Amino acid sequence: MYSFLPNIFLKLVNEFSKLPGVGEKTAFKFALHLLKRPEEEARLLADTISKFKEDIKLCSVCNNITTEEVCSICKDPSRDSATICVVEGVEDLIAIEKTGNFRGKYHVLHGVISPLDGIGPEDIKLKNLLDRVDKGDIKEIIIATNPDIEGEGTALYIAKLLKDKKVKITRLGYGIPVGGDLEFIDEITLSQALESRKTLDFDR
Amino acid sequence: MYSFLPNIFLKLVNEFSKLPGVGEKTAFKFALHLLKRPEEEARLLADTISKFKEDIKLCSVCNNITTEEVCSICKDPSRDSATICVVEGVEDLIAIEKTGNFRGKYHVLHGVISPLDGIGPEDIKLKNLLDRVDKGDIKEIIIATNPDIEGEGTALYIAKLLKDKKVKITRLGYGIPVGGDLEFIDEITLSQALESRKTLDFDR
After folding, report:
1. Phi, psi dihedral angles at B143 (to 5 degrees)
2. Backbone torsions φ then ψ of A135, nearest 5 degrees
3. For the segment A114-161, what is each residue's pLDDT rounded down to a tens digit?
4. Where does chain A show beta strands of DSSP type E?
5. Which of A34, A78, A105, A129 gives the lowest tally of CB atoms within 10 Å of its CB?
């Protein structure tokens, strides 16, 4: 169909199409955009992609992304090492950091247990979480996996794994999202919000 | 704000943000996607971008993209060299080729005249269009610039430039788009569609 276009152009469209949410039309737009941009801009993009894959590694403590042996969060002495927030991926760590309300440390699993997709506990980065707990000094593990079937399953699995360790295990609170509209919230969330209701303290 | 993330990660996010329609959120998604993909896939993307900018050049006849001196459309002996369709960019050439209904050749301007943006006639690839017309054998020039102010202005400019040459100059027909809804079509388009009305021939 596109035999009138050079192969290298179609190859670039094909590579761009592999990015998440990028269809053929968007991939064409990206390639045509690069066509118009100066050589240096395209080279900078290409070089940054290469350097990114060369330099980025996972923190040996928490599996967060870093260019060093230990990531900046793990190295930060002002953060509370006794509280660890377990997340599925780096995107979740970024979301929690953006709140500015968590001053503990993290553990990134890089996945969730998902038997239907053939992903078992050994396929996610659980082992070094156990090592961290065994080394001691951890008081609380907040399991912040997503509130879906795989996330719940993984949370339960981790809770069981750690149940004999001297560590408090918590899960992110369920409830209505701030700004949410009651009538559009599913029954399970609404039931959870009722259960986790708070006393309004007018005396303060 | 993102001081907890490695510089090379933020640099990649920044480079991805330069692609059209890509905001910070999407750029993060692209970078996190590459993080999860094998080294080879990222390298292939980087190499393809580099090779694309090195290999792609503009056809010396029509300015279409090619890796050779003359593009595959200009070289195709089965296409009608006497009809040239003038388009603003390669994306327009692709759109017309996809119809499968045009068997002439092209001329890609790589821009439109836009005095407000400081783009004059000398900034778009008009000179080799004149050369082509002067070399003769061209019967019709179809000006297929976009139906906006700059496109119309450029069409008029080209028409004036060629008015003394022995060549028929046409413009793409205006009218209602197929599948369009009459009530939502602007008055100018609707007026044009009335003017360009066709006789329905029931005798055939």
Report:
1. -90, 110
2. -70, -15
3. 999 999 999 999 999 999 999 878 999 999 999 899 999 999 999 999
4. 57-58, 65-66, 80-87, 104-108, 140-143, 168-171
5. A78
State pLDDT tens for residues A12-30.
Answer: 999 999 999 999 999 999 9
Tell me: do B106 and B174 sit in the same domain: yes
pLDDT surpasses 60 at B204? no
- Does the beta carbon of A70 lie under 8 angstroms from any beta carbon of chain B? no
**CATH number of the domain bearing residue A30:** 1.10.8.420
3-state secondary structure of B11: helix
Q: Does any domain span residue A64?
A: no
A136 belongs to a structural domain: yes
Examine the domain organization and report whether A27 and A117 are in the same domain.
no
- Looking at residue B189, its pLDDT comes to 85
Q: Which of A4, A33, A89 sits opposite B19 (nearest CB)?
A: A33
Domain that holds residue B83: 78-199
Best of A2, A9, A14 to substitute, by most chain B Cβ atoms within 10 angstroms, is: A9
Least CB–CB distance from B32: residue in A37, A53, A90: A90
Looking at the 3D structure of chain B, how many domains does it have?
2
Q: Is the pLDDT of residue A56 over 60?
A: yes
Residue B108: per-residue pLDDT: 97
Q: Which of B167, B144, B140 is nearest to B80 (CA)?
A: B140
**B132 in the same domain as B43:** no
Give this complex's ipTM: 0.85
Please check whether residues A99 and A45 belong to one and the same domain.
no
Contacts of B18 in chain A (CB under 8 A): 37, 41, 45
Interchain contact A98–B (C-beta under 8 A): yes
Same domain as A82, residue A44: no
Flag if A6 and B48 touch (Cβ within 8 Å): no
- Decide if B155 is inside a domain: yes
Q: Angle at which helices B39-55 and A7-16 pack, to 10 degrees?
A: 140
Select from A168, A164, A166, A121 the least CA-distant residue to A143. Answer: A168
In this model, does residue A201 exceed pLDDT 70?
A: no
pLDDT in tens, B89-111: 999 999 999 888 899 999 999 99
Same domain, A113 and A192: yes
What pLDDT, on a 0 to 100 scale, did the predictor assign at position B168? Answer: 92
CATH code at position B84: 3.40.1360.10
Residues B82 and B146 reside in one and the same domain: yes
Please judge whether B15 and A39 are an interchain contact, meaning their C-beta atoms are less than 8 angstroms apart.
no
- Residue B156's CB is within 10 A of a number of other CB atoms, namely 14
Global pTM? 0.83
Q: Among all residues of chain B, which has the CA nearest to that of A55?
A: B8
Q: Is B50 on the interface with A (CB under 8 A)?
A: yes
